[in-house]
Specification:
Layout: E1 3-6, H1 12-20, E2 24-27, H2 38-47, E3 51-54, H3 57-66, E4 73-76, H4 82-94, E5 103-106
Parallel strand pairs: 1-2, 1-3, 3-4, 4-5
Helix pairs in contact: 1-4
Length: 112
């Protein structure tokens, strides 16, 4: 499964569900890198060969446009259903051959 780096705004129940689905998820909180600039989050994730997972869509879409050499970015719309969110992320990862340098969007149902 995927190596993921969850940004500080990402819900921890969804992180737990992604782990139960077999993904190797590291959080900003676990590595003590809270309140870093988004660019630093992307650099750290890239150096650790991890996909960035975030709810901070606007900033990370811009970073993707500036820096194409990363392990992938998954931007999600906020969703109170953490289990459903994790399952949609899981499907997105499983249905993608390679996320390197790619930006993927995972939206809650009804939110395009």
């Amino acid at each position: 499964m995927a190596r993921i780096y969850a940004n500080e705004n990402f819900p921890l129940p969804a992180v737990a569900e992604l782990r139960s689905l077999g993904h190797d998820v590291l959080t900003v909180q676990e590595v003590g890198r809270i309140a870093e600039k988004d660019e630093d989050v992307l650099v750290f994730a890239t150096n650790q060969q991890r996909i960035v997972l975030t709810l901070n869509r606007r900033h990370f879409v811009k970073l993707h446009e500036l820096y194409t050499s990363h392990c992938g970015i998954i931007v999600c719309s906020p969703d109170n259903d953490s289990i459903g969110l994790a399952e949609r992320i899981h499907r997105t990862i499983c249905n993608s051959e390679d996320l390197n340098g790619r930006l993927m969007r995972v939206n809650r149902p009804g939110n395009l």
